[in-house]
Amino acid sequence: MALRWGIVSAGNISHDFAVALSTLPTTDHKLAAVAARQKERAEEFAKLHEIPNAFGSYKELAEFAHVDIIYIGALNRQHFELSLLYLDHGKHVLCEKPLCMNFEQSKRLTDHAKNKQLFIMEGIWSRFFPAYHYLQKQIKKGALGELKEIEVAFGNKISDTERLAKKGLGGGVTLDMGVYAIQASQWGFKEAPQKVIAKGELNEDGVDKHIEVELQYSGGRVSKIVVTSKEKLANKAFFKGTKGQITIREWPLPKGKHPTKYTNSEGLRFEAEAVRQSILKGGLENDIATHNDSLIIAKVQDEIRRQIGVVFPEDEQLNK
Q: Residue 59's closest CA among 6, 100, 96, 102?
């Protein structure tokens, strides 16, 4: 059975997701509709990706019957509201990271999906790469011995990118890029950190452009993270054990119908197929990127932001 996808927003990441779907069999995945705030953009996107239905509002897509699941590639601050909209109209949801702006929103959203008996997942796409499954096999068979330390360096010179630089857009590297580093730590240690120690550098709009974080786990295990939009870093993760270490690097990927905007975005195909398999089985979440995984990540992000002084309106609303 083909999973019928609706795409929310016609931006770069939505383009890449559509390209990734083009690498999968049409018998399994079908691009059925796209919605953007301007119908012209939706129509242009639809023409490029051969999508039969284009809408000039997100509500029109919610009311469209011939879609099973919505991919949300909109701005961070829209994730909570849009996910609720589509859940309330009976649609499953795959939402780009971060799932929401903070833990409280994320908890409300996952609880709502469960109440609606609908699938929802945060787009932690790297977890579905073959490299991550290879890593997990090596850890389980004891090739590294006891895993003691993880180091993640993730950075690109993109501090002027509007979605990262503006508080009004839900910017900052903790929410936008930090999820990848935090989830890598969780993938290795399989538990929530006991302590978070963070420092960071903010831009003139009050959002973070550079963070350095230490996550402390039980048994003296530790993860050291650097995430920045100021410069390009190694963009690798090191997993160090008592017997050896593994470095996660790139994995060969098939090419889609069009070039992607971001490097390796064809890899979004792996999470799309994992979502399909979960839904076919009647699951409300995926066991590789669970609701609890997203909630732990959100808690860590909240604590990082608290320590470095990044506050969004969504945080203040929760205290009223």
A: 6
